[in-house]
Specification:
By secondary structure, this protein is α/β, with parallel strands linked by helices. The protein has 25 helices and 14 strands. Helices cover 66% and strands 9% of the residues.
Length: 830
């Protein structure tokens, strides 16, 4: 299985987020609180279900707080096929759906088929580990290391380990060698006390001695029967185990005996033949394509143009004329805009005078009109210029008189006051009379001459004082009228050219605009040119196709001969027979693989033991015989117990005062209680031993391959400082390059972690053909320096050849290494 893409609708802090796991190994970096643990929990939850929320699991649900969506989907690849596993909020781990690449959907059952026997606890025990697992390595003793390897070798042994712990706890609650408060310890101590009391109360009864001897003989008989029972019980367990393995052994025998002979063709020859088939089909397809193309070229000539080649120059001339008329059209449009402005200005001038306007005066006529209207004002101006300006002298006289008048008042001199007043008055009167003498004489005009001038030049409808002033408007009116007349003449000339041009056009183009006509002419010219080009292109293409067909025929003949040569070695003559040959060959290979698979489930010891029986019935007979012997031993033990009890009762009856009898009865009851407690304790111990032996047997055949693979990985991680890993009775030992041997307890924490990683990844590699799942590592290399981390990444790349590797880390030193990472912190900033 390989995880390719992940989409989270809502899970913890992730909301509507996509992840693309294209790299392998996939390294995911993020500091604390970046969402690494949330993403890792999401991957496991989609595959094996959401946490149920009960007890401490309520913190493992990752219910989002910012959205109502809960769940998401994972795109996985299994055996070359893509599946989308989607899990959403729901009961019993969430509502799950599985969609394959063909769109077919399934549910929980389809997911179980994809995952096989893998569940959450088994996946986390075998394919996921982190720094917490590595930190605990240094605290494992020899037995715990042995159990750890046993768990690696035997798939699903974690459940058996839990069962062993449960049996051990139950056994310890019954008896401990050095305990005092446990039930069996107390009963044994009480039994010893009762025995001492009985011995003191026995007396000298001869019968008592005989009964005691008989009691001892029965006890020996009971011990022998119990010893034989313990001896027969492992045999019974072995026979029951063989009975369970018999179907696998039978299938292995059948497939092993009926294995077909060797294939005629090698895998390389089969691959070559298949490649030749594909190339042959492709060549045939290309031949058909070229032949169809030739047929289309022969039956499909270029579309004929509407105009003959002789009309193309005429079309080109019309196009050039259309371009000229378009330019003239733009000019006429601008001139028409100007004419509109001229017309508005002309209308404004006519509106201003309310009468028809005459022609403007010539310069001579203007001079004559000015003479008639402006003779007297010109002589008055000259007179003013000839007279001096008396204002200054008058002002001096007035100011002088006024000063004298003021001085006289201040000095109280009447004479001076009178002189000042007379001087000022005389000056004022002088100025008055002078101004009266300078008044112009009345202007004399020739009214008849002016009116005659107006009648002559059409000015009689306007006041004479406006005749000179309106000459500018009259001049502008004449200019505007001339410009408008010229514009109308140009428009008529353009309309005549356009009409002449339309008559020369084909009827289909005569009612179109110049732009449309030019476009149609361009299309007609282009169609003619394209038709000539199509004819030339078809000629060249037919020649090219002919050459290609000749080459394809040669290639097809050569490839067909090569293919038939391989077919001849396999004894087939066509593709159908070769397909049947491949089916038979695949079936034979599958049968061989099945034989190997069955063989891997049987140890050499199992095959040897099963070979001792001719058939299943013989094995069942031996099993029944052993069970019968065990039943007889159980019955003997029960009868012997009864005899012992009878002897004890008779011994008690021989005691006259009854003290001995009571003590014996009390001891007998206590013995029965002890017997049941011992049986229960032994049952737990035997169960623990059986589970351990079963796990050891299930793991033994995988140990060599796991250890060999782990040795390679351990050597890579330690730069070949350690070259060998040994499993001994004393525990796990490693051999250094100088042949010095170390126990795991003697290794440094970092080296012990490297050994643990090598064993875990060695198991993953060996079991990848049976259980191929992504390996998830959560910050597993915190204690590694950059050199060790670089080696670890190199090892992960090697593991990635068979398994997908997903490594989560919060160590920012990973950025210093030359590896591609998925930065969750940067992803959140986006």
């Amino acid at each position: 299985m390989k995880i390719k893409k992940v989409h989270i609708d809502g899970f913890g802090k992730w909301h509507d987020q996509d992840f693309d796991f294209t790299a392998n190994p996939q390294i995911i970096y993020g500091p604390n609180e970046a969402g690494k643990t949330t993403l890792m929990a999401f991957l496991v939850s989609v595959l094996f279900g959401f946490a149920d929320g009960r007890g401490k699991n309520r913190f493992a649900q990752y219910i989002p707080k910012t959205t109502s969506s809960y769940g998401g989907s994972v795109l996985v690849e299994i055996n070359g096929h893509d599946y989308v596993i989607k899990r959403q909020r729901g009961r019993n781990g969430g509502k799950v759906s599985v969609t394959d690449s063909q769109g077919r959907q399934g549910g929980e059952q389809e997911l179980k088929k994809l995952l096989g026997p893998m569940d959450r606890s088994l996946y986390q025990a075998l394919f996921s580990f982190g720094q917490r697992d590595l930190t605990a390595v240094d605290e494992l003793n020899r037995d715990e290391w042995q159990q750890h390897l046993q768990q690696l070798g035997a798939v699903g042994s974690a459940q058996w380990d839990q069962l062993i712990d449960q049996y051990q706890k139950q056994a310890d609650h019954l008896y401990k060698p050095r305990g005092r408060k446990w039930p069996l310890n107390q009963d044994l101590h009480q039994y010893a006390d009762l025995t001492d009391k009985i011995n003191r109360a026995r007396g000298k009864f001869h019968r008592y001695q005989d009964l005691q001897a008989n009691l001892q003989a029965n006890k020996e008989k009971l011990q022998q029967a119990q010893a034989e029972l313990q001896k027969q019980q492992p045999l019974l367990q072995k026979l029951e185990h063989l009975q369970q393995l018999w179907p696998v052994y039978h299938e292995w025998q059948h497939s092993h005996q009926t294995r077909p002979l060797a294939d005629y063709l090698t895998d390389q020859q089969v691959t070559t033949a298949q490649e030749l088939q594909v190339r042959e089909k492709e060549l045939r397809r290309q031949q058909q394509f070229y032949q169809q193309r030739l047929a289309r070229i022969d039956h499909q000539s270029p579309q004929a143009t509407k105009h003959s080649p002789q009309s193309m120059p005429e079309l080109q001339r019309l196009k050039e004329q259309a371009v000229e008329l378009q330019a003239e059209e733009a000019l006429q449009h601008r001139q028409q805009t100007q004419a509109n402005q001229w017309q508005q200005e002309l209308t404004a001038i006519k509106t201003r005078y309310h009468h028809p306007l005459p022609a403007p005066l010539t310069p001579q006529e203007k001079a004559e009109l000015a003479r008639l209207l402006n003779v007297q004002p010109l002589s008055r101006a000259n007179t003013n210029q000839s007279n001096g300006d008396p204002s200054r002298a008058a002002m001096i006289g007035i100011v002088g008189g006024f000063v004298l008048f003021i001085i006289g008042l201040l000095a109280n001199a009447t004479f001076i006051t009178a002189i000042g007043a007379i001087a000022a008055f005389a000056t004022v009167m002088y100025l008055y009379y002078q101004r009266q003498g300078n008044r112009p004489a009345p202007v004399t005009t020739d009214s008849q001459a002016i009116m005659a001038f107006g009648q002559k030049h059409g000015l009689q409808d306007f006041p004479p004082d406006q005749w000179l002033l309106m000459q500018g408007d009259l001049q502008r009116n004449a200019e505007l009228a001339a410009q408008l007349q010229t514009a109308n003449q140009d428009q008529q000339r353009y309309d005549h050219q356009l009409a002449t041009f339309n008559q020369q056009l084909p009827p289909a183009l005569q009612n179109l605009t110049l732009a449309a006509v030019r476009t149609k002419l361009d299309d007609l010219l282009e169609q003619g040119q394209q038709a000539r080009q199509d004819i030339q292109a078809n000629t060249r293409e037919k020649a090219t196709i002919a050459n290609n067909l000749a080459q394809l025929n040669q290639d097809y003949s050569k490839i067909h001969q090569q293919k038939m040569a391989i077919y001849q070695q396999a004894g087939v003559h066509d593709d159908n027979q070769f397909t049947q040959y491949l089916a038979n060959r695949s079936a034979a290979q599958s049968q061989a693989l099945a034989s190997d698979a069955y063989g891997q489930q049987l140890t050499a010891e199992d095959r040897q033991a099963l070979a001792a029986y001719a058939n299943k019935d013989e094995l069942i007979t031996a099993l029944s015989k052993t069970r019968h012997q065990l039943d007889q031993l159980t019955l003997t033990i029960s009868h012997t117990h009864e005899e012992i009890q009878k002897d004890k009762v008779e011994i008690d009856s021989l005691v006259e005062d009854g003290t001995l009898s009571n003590l014996e009865q009390e001891r007998a009851n206590l013995a029965a209680k002890i017997w049941h407690e011992v049986q229960e304790w032994l049952r737990y111990q035997l169960a623990i031993q059986w589970v351990n032996k079963a796990l050891a047997g299930a793991s033994a055949d995988r140990y060599p391959a796991i250890i060999r693979q782990a040795e390679q990985y351990f050597a890579l991680l330690t730069d070949h400082r350690y070259s060998q890993i040994d499993l001994t009775a004393d525990g796990i030992k490693v051999v250094r390059r100088d042949q010095e041997v170390f126990l795991v307890e003697e290794l440094s924490q970092g080296t012990a972690e490297q050994l643990y990683i090598a064993l875990r990844l060695g198991f993953v590699t060996v079991m990848s053909d049976q259980a191929n799942f992504p390996v998830i590592i959560d910050d597993g290399f915190v204690n590694f320096d950059n050199v060790r981390r670089q080696r670890m990444l190199a090892l992960l790349e090697k593991i990635a050849e068979k398994n997908q590797v997903i490594y989560f880390t919060a160590d920012d030193r990973i950025k210093d290494l030359d590896v591609k990472i998925l930065d969750l912190q940067a992803l959140k900033r986006e």
